[in-house]
Write a structure and sequence with these properties.
This protein has one domain: TIM Barrel. 43% of the residues lie in helices and 21% in strands. The protein contains 9 helices and 10 strands. Helix 1 runs parallel beside helix 9, helix 6 packs across helix 7 and helix 7 packs parallel to helix 8.
Length: 263
Amino acid sequence: MTTLGLIFPPDLPPERLRAVAVAADDAGVEQLWLWEDCFKESGVAPAAAVLAWTERLTVGIGLLPVPLRNVALTAMELATLERLFPGRVVPGVGHGVLDWMGQVGARAESPMTLLREYTTALQALLRGERVTTSGRYVHLDGVALDWPPSPAPPLLVGAMGDRTSALAGELGEGVIFSEMSADRVREALQHLRAGRQKAGRDGTGDVVVFLAVDALDVRAVANQVQEMESAGATHVALHVLDGAIPLEDAARFVAQELRTLVG
């Protein structure tokens, strides 16, 4: 059964977040996804707030742009969240929007190399390993977390192109696809499976798809969700576009009306 979620986009002011999170928790929404977008809202701070305000919600962070963040700091933040709220955090990392990375002086010459080095180091730190590495971008000298989580949260990798899809399969516990067509999801999953096979892994892991909707016609949205499920999605999170419906109402739509049809 596909996991259904709702996205709180950073186009909304942060002070709206509590009401939406509480409404989602009360309605029974399975996942609330947050985006770290320049130069709007961060990912970790609102995730901590949502986790503290709610009892059952799983909170996804998609995506943390790795050029902006020292890997040790990200490991510390994610480890803290996981220990405070076990099993309720699903973090995702990506190479970020390259123009935005350029604006802050953090654009990498090889985003794929950075994402590979970063994901590998972050996973090792979250597993409680002591990491020494000197890559092109990631440099750690005997770094280990004093308070690693056990188990580590599943780390997803954001992908748009074929190469990042393959990297997500090779290294991630799953992948995040942002607003792709079902046909494009199918195509990208071929590359993800190839990456997993290269690493000696089976299946696809979690496949999270962000689905934009501009009107909440329950049958129409259910059809879109089922189309994504048939393409390979295991999780679908709705991005309700401006003006369609207040997100508090969208939470009830997702957890009650849509869940009834999707099954």
